Amino acid sequence: MMSDQDSFIERVLIPHEDIQQKVRELGEQITRDYQGKDLRVVGILRGAFIFMADLIRNIKLPLSVDFMSISSYGGSVESSGVVRILKDLDKSITGVDVLIVEDIVDTGLTLKHLLEVLSTRNPASLRVCALLDKKERRLVPDLKIDYVGFEIPNLFVVGYGLDFAEKYRNYPFIFVLKPEYYQPEFTR
Ligand code: IMP
Ligand code: MG
Predict the structure, then answer these.
(1) What is the secondary structure of 3-71 as a DSSP string?
(2) Catalytic annotation on 106?
(3) In whole angstroms, what is the distance from residue 181 CA to residue 9 CA?
(4) Locate the Phosphoribosyltransferase domain: which residues (predicted)?
(5) CATH at 87
């Protein structure tokens, strides 16, 4: 999986095989929980797109999908918690069982704002599935994440949809960059 060209990798935190195993388990659990429901899986662009594509193929239900793109003001490493909707959902979620798919919950500020926005639209239910949870960074104490892939330590990670300055989303595993690659001169 790794080659000499991948010299920017400090350490692989979660190998591809572990991700695939976890995604299968999450898919099975969600399949059980949403039997007979009108499930709409909502992916938060862009970080969740790889995870969501794998996850929904492990959910054995006639679900539908929609996407939202939000941006939190601030730099590429720190979130400010002020959420701006760049692309809203295409379809109404009123009366629909909505499952939000996120790449990672860090401070939880983004998710808190998103849940507030979507709950005003009166979905039948509103739950969250996040691949990664950086629990020790949480600033929103009572935030409920219904399905979590992996709890991870306070490290900035990339790969499998997650980026630093829009790069590294295409790598099929979760990894930590070498410190020098988090410098601004490498963001181009
Ligand atoms: P929160 O509002 O602090 O929970 O931030 C959540 C968002 O910050 C995620 O959706 C990511 O876009 C970004 N983020 C937080 N931690 C990481 C990381 O380790 N790698 C890549 N993106 C991250
Ligand atoms: Mg994101």
Answers:
(1) -TT-TTEEEEEE-HHHHHHHHHHHHHHHHHHTTTS-EEEEEEETTTHHHHHHHHTT--S--EEEEEEEE
(2) yes
(3) 9
(4) 17-164
(5) 3.40.50.2020
pLDDT tens by residue, 52-107: 999 999 999 999 999 999 987 655 555 566 678 999 999 999 999 999 999 999 99
Cα angle at 101 between 100 and 103, to 5 degrees? 140
* Distance from Cα 48 to the centre of ligand 2, integer Å: 7
Q: How far apart are CA 125 and CA 41, in angstroms?
A: 12
Residue 142 is part of which domain span? 21-30+37-74+82-155
User: What whole-number distance in Å separates Cα of residue 90 and Cα of residue 126?
Assistant: 17
In a domain, 188, yes or no: no
By alpha-carbon position, which residue is closest to atom 2 of ligand 1?
110
Whether 104 lines ligand 1, by a CB cut-off of 6 Å, is: yes
| Residues 34 and 126 sit within 8 Å (Cβ to Cβ) | no
CA distances from 62 to 95, 104, 105, 122 (A): 17, 26, 27, 22
How many H helices and E strands in the chain? 3, 9
d(CA 186, CA 188): 6
Assigned domain for 91 exists? yes
Six-digit token pair at 44? Answer: 């938060």
